[in-house]
Amino acid sequence: MDNTDNSDNIDKNEKFVPSIRGQLKKHIIHVPEIIHEHASGIRINGKLIKSLVFTTDIAIIRNMNGNAVIAVYPFTPQPIITQALMLAADVPVFCGVGGGTTQGARVVNLANHAEHQGAMGVVVNSPTKNEIIKEISQVIDIPIILTVVSEHTDVKGRIEAGATILNVSGAANTAKIVRKIREDFPYIPIIATGGPTDETIRQTIEAGANAITYTPPTNGEIFGEMMKKYRDDENAP
Questions:
Q1: Residues 204, 180: contact at Cβ < 8 Å?
Q2: Residues 6+ away with beta carbon under 8 Å from 208
Q3: What pLDDT sits at residue 12?
Q4: pLDDT of 10 above 60
Q5: Burial (Cβ within 10 Å: 0-12, 13-18, ≥19) of residue 55
Q6: Residues 115/91, Cβ–Cβ less than 8 Å
Q7: How confident is the model at residue 11 (pLDDT cuts 50, 70, 90)?
Q8: Does the pLDDT at position 26 exceed 90?
Q9: Beta 68-71 vs 93-96: how paired, if at all?
């Protein structure tokens, strides 16, 4: 175990948090520290969520330090995928249940099934009709996370239909959308994409986001870096 004494680096004005990890857990994906330092987080059933890793890759889910997983993918949601994610994850999972290509009663049924499989919340896409959100809210007791992609979204109507948390994903406009929502709805929980740098993450948090989604590098990208290092080591004189 790596149990390094960090006493020389302690800020006397802050509470010291000891950090312990095994040797084999050193090589994991770390979400940007700025998220945990500055985001307020969203407390759901007693668990504080500040960072969500955007992935359905089980290997990444088992080797990252995010507070939760947001598992949304561009295909019709399938309960067997949700089940696999639940079995693999050691952190809460928010599962996509459709609302874009997948519509109607199927979305409601998938949301109900996800709750029974252990999801902490369900994520519905931006085209989801308010009627479907309302139906989902009547059958599940976990948060409904509604994805917002534009500043023109009828946020009031979405909240009244039963959306519990807003998930803002507006690319370069994300912070702007978050700020507009926060002005009109000061207490609605907001998750948002943070962008590629600490500065864009900071801007999104300052705009009003409570929690940040982080897109990790792919397995291929990580492997590419490792193989380059192996080749460099082999070729070293």
A1: no
A2: 178, 179, 181, 182, 190
A3: 57
A4: no
A5: buried
A6: no
A7: low
A8: no
A9: parallel
Residues 6+ apart with CB under 8 A from 149: 126, 168, 169, 170
Question: What is the DSSP secondary-structure string of the chain?
Answer: -B----GGG--TTS------B-GGGSSSB---HHHHHH---EEETTEEE-EEEE---HHHHTTB--SEEEE--SS---HHHHHHHHHH-SS-EEEE--SSSS-THHHHHHHHHHHHHT-SEEEE-TT--HHHHHHHHHH--SPEEEEE--TTS-HHHHHHHT--EEEE--GGGHHHHHHHHHHH-TTS-EEEE--SSHHHHHHHHHHT-SEEEE-PPPHHHHHHHHHHHHHHHHH--
State the pLDDT confidence band at 61, using cuts at 50, 70 and 90. Answer: very high
> Which residues are bridge partners to 69 per DSSP?
53, 93
Query: What pLDDT, in 10s, does the model give residues 163-190?
Result: 999 999 999 999 999 999 999 999 999 9
Dihedral sign, CA of 202, 208, 209, 210? positive
- For 102, phi then psi, to 5°, come to -90, 125
Residue (of 108, 96, 99) closest to 72 by Cα position: 96
Q: Whole-structure pTM over 0.85, yes or no?
A: yes
Two structure tokens written together for 8: 């020389």
Q: Within a 13 Å sphere around the CA of 216, how many CA atoms are in the beta-carbon half?
A: 28
State residue 179's pLDDT score. 98
